[in-house]
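Archive entry: two folds, one per protein. Generate the first.
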Amino acid sequence: MSVERNFKLSEYDLKTYTLIYLISQGMILLLQRDDGKSDMAGKITGLGGKIEQGESLLDSAKREFYEESGLHIHDPELKGTFQWLDESKKICMTHIIFARQYSGELLEENREGILAWYLIAKLQEIETLAQYQMMFLPYLLEDSNHFYSGIGEFRNEELIDYIDSKGGKNV
């Protein structure tokens, strides 16, 4: 049985974000979001946030990453986009960015949660990694030449429908 969905885009708010992953020596820096956060509470995600008015995509990525980690990323690279919508009438466009060069000293604490390095080879074993990031992260880490595009629908922060450029469909 198919459920018909009718979206009227003019009823939605559009938000743009960066989602940044620092990769170094077989490890990836991730953030376990504070349990008190309104979005993805307790989940492990990349770093990032909203692109501010008049700010370029890569400048936003550098700023957000520094604010959350204390590290300056060098030569960030746009690897894809993930758009999503949810019951709150919000459509979000997330720009997926990888960086492999950095400088600075990692913060011990930040306002978003806890930072930690994780083995890339064991990403599949991280139970609290945000579900939608598992749709693209392993793929992009394996194929550095691919540009990813995906669209998802969330309900109560759970991914309920999905399609992407690598052939993935539904959940």
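Generate the second and append.
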Amino acid sequence: MTDDTPDSLIPYDEIVQEALRAVVARVLGQVEASGGTLPGNHHFYITFRTHAPGVDIPAHLKARFPEEMTIVLQNKFWDLKVAEDHFSVGLTFNQVPASLFVPFAAITAFVDPAVDFGLQFQALDADVEPEPHDPAQNDSPEPLAKPAEDGSNVVSVDFGRKK
């Protein structure tokens, strides 16, 4: 065997990142459904890229946090709204209320310290196209295996396994 692992034609990293972002969406959605009340001692630290596509925060916050900022959802937040691809929330910064609109793709970290739970993400750029992949080699228009001639529906497949 060789130490060289072939490049995957399946974007596993992207699929896992998308699934983990769905965890954040589901948790925030449950808080929204409960009227914005966090259960028990739960509270969330959410870090996101302030310049990511779709992020909408006040200019003074973008100037103060030009790359990334962390918000805390604990006691004083309002109007939490969760959609499939983003959330919005009202928070106070130095006693000045602000509304934030954050696409899930902009999130780089989600932490619930009450239960020692955390997720790290690679921030996605919505305006960047995914890397092109070679076409799958099993998509030929002609079948690669022929049905058995005895009328059964058994297909013979040989994967060419090394011995």
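Annotation attached to the second fold: The longest strand covers residues 86-93. The beta strands are 44-49, 68-73, 77-82, 86-93, 96-103, 107-112, 117-120.
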